[in-house]
Amino acid sequence: MSSLRPGASPSDPYATIAAIYDAEFSDADADIRTFARDMDGAARVLVLGCGTGRVSEALRAPRRTVVGVDLSAPMIARAKVNAAQSVARRAGGRGDTGTERPGDIEYVVADMCALEPLGLAPFDAAVIPNAAFSFLTSRRDQLRCLAGLRDLVSGPLWIDLPMPDFALLGAPHTPEAPAWLGTVGELRVRRTREVWRHPVQQRLSLLDRYYHADDPGAALLAASRLELRLIFPAELEWLLEVAGFYADAMYGDHAGGPLREGCPRLLVRAL
Ligand SMILES: C[S@@+](CC[C@H](N)C(=O)[O-])C[C@H]1O[C@@H](n2cnc3c(N)ncnc32)[C@H](O)[C@@H]1O
């Protein structure tokens, strides 16, 4: 827990919470099943905003190379540790050092809006999971990201975003409220969330604070301010088309449900 510290860096809100992120999202896999079903035969898969590798590691497979890109060096450092542990677990499970390779994984600290200078080889499929695209708060950055992808990806591109609705864009300010309770290592941790909403700009500011769950008087463990841009379905279709993609299918949740009032996700498969 040594990497927990109060005070979020505005340029990397995940720097303070990389150690907690895995614990908080360890049960999330419905999105992964959807992506994995569409990756049959894909020899190279790109994951943008890969964080600590939750999705990239799960998409790893024999005869496939997965490349994960993230702006946050602490998140990538953890992704590399997670990848090494996963290889060790698989080898241990087989009781040998492993002749069947689990597939390669490479991690890069970089901005998903500046893919060209990375000189990456082409990909068969790409994923931008769990609201990572929402962190691109300007049209310029959104289009730079998609244009960079258009040059690199020949197969499906999945983008998973929260669906904007009145609950998300309603009251201007929701004070600090309980949002998550979990275990990080040996420590029980609770997260609260304070939200500011800017409906005209379609922006959300989230202030996440992490505390010892069993010691209400204890100091803050970490805090993180997340700035998100909400994107409506028609906007995403337009962005994709400008960049040379088209929206092949759009879903309202990770089970493939339709887009409709109140659906939780805006999940797009683009070609
Ligand atoms: C909500 S996390 C998602 C992490 C992981 N993909 C998952 O599904 O668990 C969003 C991630 O997007 C990354 N991110 C935000 N802006 C980025 C950018 N411009 N380029 C690359 N990564 C970015 C953050 O550092 C963070 O790790």
Structure notes:
This protein is about 25% helix and about 30% strand. The relative contact order is 0.16. It has seven helices and eleven strands. The termini are far apart. It folds into two domains: about 20-165 and about 230-270, Vaccinia Virus protein VP39 (Rossmann fold, 3-Layer(aba) Sandwich); about 165-230. The strands form two sheets. The protein has a seven-stranded mixed sheet. It has about 270 residues and is α/β, with parallel strands linked by helices. Bound molecules: S-adenosylmethionine (SAM). The site of S-adenosylmethionine has 21 residues, from helix 3 and strand 2.
Q: Which features characterize this protein?
A:
271 residues, alpha/beta, Rossmann fold, 2 domains, 7 helices, binds S-adenosylmethionine
The total domain count is 2
Radius of gyration: 19 Å
Helix amount, in percent? 25-40%
Largest sheet: 7 strands, mixed
Low-confidence stretches: 1-9
What is the annotated CATH architecture of the largest domain?
3-Layer(aba) Sandwich
CATH topology of the largest domain: Rossmann fold
CATH superfamily of the largest domain: Vaccinia Virus protein VP39
| H and E string | HHEHEHEEHEHEEEEHEE
Shape from CA axes? globular
Regarding CATH, which class of the largest domain?
A: Alpha Beta
Bound molecules: S-adenosylmethionine
Mean pLDDT: 91
Percentage of residues in strands:
25-35%
**How many strands in all?**
11
Sheet with most strands: strand arrangement: 3-2-1-4-5-11-10
Which structural class do the helices and strands define?
A: alpha/beta
First-to-last CA distance: 41 Å
Number of helices: 7
